[in-house]
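chain below, 338 aa
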Amino acid sequence: MHHALLYQPLDNQDVRCQVCQRRCRIPQGDRGYCRTRKNVDGELYSLIYGRVSSMRVSPIEIKPMFHFYPGSQWLSMGSLGCNFLCPGCQNWGIAHADAEKDLNSTSYVSPQEAVRLAIEQNCKGISFTYNEPTLWLEYALDCAKIAREKGLLNNFVTNGYITHDALDLIGPYLAAYRADLKGFSDRTYKQIANVPDFRGICKIIERSKVHWGMHIEIVTNIIPEFNDDKAELEDLAKWICAHLGPETPWHVTQFVPHLRLAHLSITPVGILEKAREIGLEAGLKYVYIGNVPGHPSENTYCPGCGELLLERSNFHILQNHLKGSCCRYCGQEIEGYF
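prediction:
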């Protein structure tokens, strides 16, 4: 166990966790909603510090991030647990795991070893992903500090339900923040993630960009009958455009049935294409369709002249017609890090 960084002692040896926006009140001997943080005699401990369930070198496009050093390789790491426990989670085997009972399925990797591996594999940096990295705050922070000292970058692939205090601890060490927006209503978030108010997530994403200067890309996994409402998608796209900027990439991805939503259908491509149209009509320059290999809307096109700039297939770049960070045909700058 590793002593937690953010918690508030309460009466009767209870504590209040301050890492995610659930802010669980945890009695002595119990754990919070995510089951990765335990109250031991009035002090809060992380059960997953350094415990790695999944680790591989993978391209940035898998996150997905398309405007952040395209084609670069990242040491991608994850642990156990989540503060959402979505019913259709694709990584439910680790995200829904019990951090006490399932530790034997993980291996310990020190922060120093993680950074060494990233350097050895010629990675651009470390991506904290697979399960919710907010719960890995102490470990991610230690890794990220060392990584930055060694000239590496760091990114979070996250649901965005982190507190301001936790974000401000890790914020100076994150270069990019790939955040989910699962919908744009309390109803959708209650149904998908048991979250009563999604507005705090929006504020965190905006703070990541405005206050900490992170590169932001947004993903909405469109689930039939859950978050495919046209008006809600319009509101979501308009919010991205107004609060994060029209240059912010929005990935609308195909839901593949898992777990308690295994009875649903795969998202029809037509719904994804309509969502993309909604994003473009809202003023977004870059709206991508994800999880549909070979679809032309997984490519990057110049918002000025419309020419194909980056052709992708199954997370690999097949063609690159950028000149630096500009369109080689008309000279328009393509926002991001290229």
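The chain has three domains: 2-46, 51-303, 304-338. Helices lie at 92-95, 111-120, 137-149, 164-170, 186-193, 199-210, 230-244, 269-281.
thats it, cya
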